[in-house]
Amino acid sequence: VVRRCTGGLICPAQRVERLKHFASRNAFDIEGLGDKIIEEFYHDGLIQSPSDIFTLAARNERSLKKLKDREGWGEASVKKLFDAIDQRRSIALDRFIFALGIRHVGETTARVLARAYGSAEYFRDQMIAALPESEAWNELNAIDGIGAVVAEAITQFFGEGHNIEVVNELLKHVTPMPLAAVAASSPVSGKTVVFTGALEKMTREEAKSMAERLGAKVAGSVSKKTDLLV
């Protein structure tokens, strides 16, 4: 028998780790909000859920104990953190979905879901409606790259009312942006591309996004299916 906690985004035992995942490089990528700072802010009651990150500046203004007065902080470092948070109030939809920490939903699956549903609100509503044998459930399972295991994990996540509340609260402060249209035909359309090492003109994440916009499939490692290695 395998027992798994369904507390999701509000489970105390999981909350810190989920917050770390939320702010991590491939999710919201909030500079200055690393693992150590998240643990410190969580245990001091400053950040308990993802939406708290985006209300931190406003709450700091009202607080008698300012962030700048904390050990290791100052006005410059606080401003830098708040600026980094503000830069993430708009974020690509696939990063938003990945940041939720849904079991079995990695970066590639999040991107597939983002392209299939187009907006965070529509994705949320369809996942809430995706009861077994429903039209929404059948549509989810019909998406290329989404199997029964992934579909069940997603619907279980949105089957918990507290997870929906967290997502709804987050959407009050964050605007997930639709992914750019994929080119129907290009020299790399349909090709499987792997990026490795450091690139001179852009980051690897930017290169991956560009390749996907041109219709390529980006893989994380070389395999028999690899067409191009950059």
Fill in the keyword field for this structure.
230 residues, mainly alpha, three-stranded parallel sheet, two-stranded parallel ribbon, 11 helices, globular
SSE inventory with pairings:
Elements: H1 12-23, H2 35-43, H3 50-62, H4 75-86, E1 90-92, H5 93-99, H6 107-117, H7 120-129, H8 135-142, H9 148-158, H10 161-171, E2 175-177, E3 192-194, H11 204-213, E4 217-219, E5 228-229
Helix pairs in contact: 3-10, 5-6
Describe the structure.
By secondary structure, the chain is mainly alpha-helical. 50% of the residues lie in helices and 6% in strands. It has helices spanning 12-23, 35-43, 50-62, 75-86, 93-99, 107-117, 120-129, 135-142, 148-158, 161-171, 204-213, and strands at residues 90-92, 175-177, 192-194, 217-219, 228-229. The strands form 2 sheets. The chain has a 3-stranded parallel sheet. Helix 11 (204-213) links the parallel strand 3 (192-194) and strand 4 (217-219). The model has no long low-confidence stretch (mean pLDDT 90).
